[in-house]
Amino acid sequence: MPAPSSPVAVVSSASTESVPPDERIEFWEDHNRRELVGLTCSSYAEQGLVAKETNLAAGALHVAEILGNAHAVERSRKTCRTLPKDSVFASLVLGGTAVFFSGDGVFPVEAGSLVLYETERPYLFAFSAPMRQILVDIPRTVFTERCRPGGVPEPTVLGTRSRAETMAVSALHSVADALVTQRSLPGGDDPETTLLELIRALGARRFEGDRGHLAAIRQYIDRHLTDPALSAQHVAAAAGISARHLSRLFEAEGTSPARYILRRRLDHAYAQLTSGGTTATIADIAYGCGFSGQSHFTRVFREHFGRTPGEVRLAERKRSQ
């Protein structure tokens, strides 16, 4: 049975559009100082800074969706001292191109990339075009416990080195986007846990080798559960590895690719059957979860959960009355 999800709640939102142009920078800096992190901002656009930010809470995580025109934000050494914050930021750049400056170098950032960096170190993040960013604020205690004990050794841009890394960052984008748009994850997965697992996997893969590959593959499977053609061969090709290598990865977890795909489809179906808001028929749910027919779906569902889909739906309706 899928684990219950952590509640996701909108904490605040702000926009500079209704603020006089010559007051927008001060407004933006003050808002971010209160809601996210202390920084200074610069914009050379004729209309001044045009930006919007929505802040959400997902368990222990703070997630901010930021949209704006070309601008730069800087967290100087002085700001780090006067406005301390001890977090790791996972910045998902979904639109626009940017450059990240720090004491460790200059890093170009393309749309579709992830930047991992620590807020206790000075940095400058400059966007040269209209941008969209989803920023995941992970308190250091949470990051060291659930992602990587040593933190982030240096600012790191992920999503450019290999097909597996690109797949993992793409999965992270999908989860973060679902979170900020208030959509459920496949199988009713917990967004906090899923985000942290993917970030842990990406960090492990970049800093410690290939241990994070499996988490990215799992997320790829979750995003393609509705495709009835999804198979071990399909997943292996997308990950750029052999079907034998894929099997070895899952064998270490005590399962196989085929059994994992089936289990995730069943979890997804269970989540829909127990959702009070759905009016989909059992046949619709079966096909929507990638099963070829209702009879096969009913049989494997009963084998896995000990009850038929109809029994699960009826029990949920009685419980909610």
UniProtKB/TrEMBL annotation:
It comes from the Bacteria. InterPro entries: AraC-bd_2, AraC_XylS_family_regulators, Homeodomain-like_sf, HTH_AraC, Tscrpt_reg_AraC-type_HTH. It holds the Pfam family HTH_18. Keywords: DNA-binding, Transcription, Transcription regulation. PANTHER family: ARAC SUBFAMILY, HTH-TYPE TRANSCRIPTIONAL ACTIVATOR RHAS-RELATED. Residues 215-315 form the HTH araC/xylS-type domain. SMART domains: HTH_ARAC. This is Helix-turn-helix domain-containing protein. Coiled coil: none annotated.
